Amino acid sequence: MTGEAVTARPGLDLTRLSKYGVYLAIALLGLYNIFFTPYFLTWSNLRIQLIQVAPVVIVALGMALVIGTEGIDLSVGSVMALAAAFIPLYLGYGVVAAILVSLAAGVVVGLINGVLVAKVGLQPIVATLALFVGGRGLAVVISKGRLRDIHDSNFLYLGSGDLFGIPVLVWIAALLVAVVAFVVRRTVFGRRLLAIGGNRPATELAGVPVQRVLITVYVVCSVLASIAGLLSVSRIQSSDASSVGLLIELSAITAVVVGGTPLTGGKVRVVGTVAGALLMQLVIATMIKHNLRPSTTEMVQAVIILIAVYVARERKTR
Known about the structure:
By secondary structure, this protein is mainly α. The strands form two sheets. It has a two-stranded antiparallel ribbon. Strands 2-3 form a two-stranded antiparallel sheet. β2 and β3 form a beta hairpin. α2 packs antiparallel against α10, α3 packs across α10 and α8 crosses α10.
């Protein structure tokens, strides 16, 4: 009896740590900043943090869906670059036209990734790696390697405007979080997505259109990346295909993993993903405000990722 009790307790602790550890970390880091970081609780600082984390949250939502199917998408940064490249080219036809073209670019990339994974049978990391490299190169070619300033006030409102005192960018991210959470928890598509990640062969035998669901997931992921790309352009008021979305795929994967979504698929923690993005943003901001080197920040991020992956792995093996 004693031996059974001892072995059961760590499993329970790991389950709680996996589910609630990110919230505890945010609370502890928040308390540290309240007491030791000047002006941390000012609205101007909180506003900056929310604006900076919003694109990561949007991309991480799509990444969480893909990881929920036991996949990965390394092309999201390149999709953001493509969206950034198309915006200045089509703003002359109106804001709506420019946005639609950018979203269409995301649809095309998502279709390519989805077909390569679902129909051709390539490993997701291999299928999306091609567009991780080639997509940004194409974006640079489209933009002719030049930084282009954006002056359209209607478009700039998306990234720099306020609604009821809160940045529009944050409202958009919050709306997308609510939509993705609803899809995952309340729709047939969400249940099918999780079933594929949990046991794909059994899902296929059950008659679920696995290929169609997978393609749709990759399309949604790329469209969300396109939205993040055009919002980033609107926020910085310029389009630079060589830098927009650079390495954001790593930030998105980190947010998903730290938020409790297992890399083995079968689960998607939407709120946890948002919390993971907020935690990593808080870590970066804290270190910058305390004048720590960027290399130190990167090492701390790496440790957080390793802890999150280890906890998820141990939990799965119990």
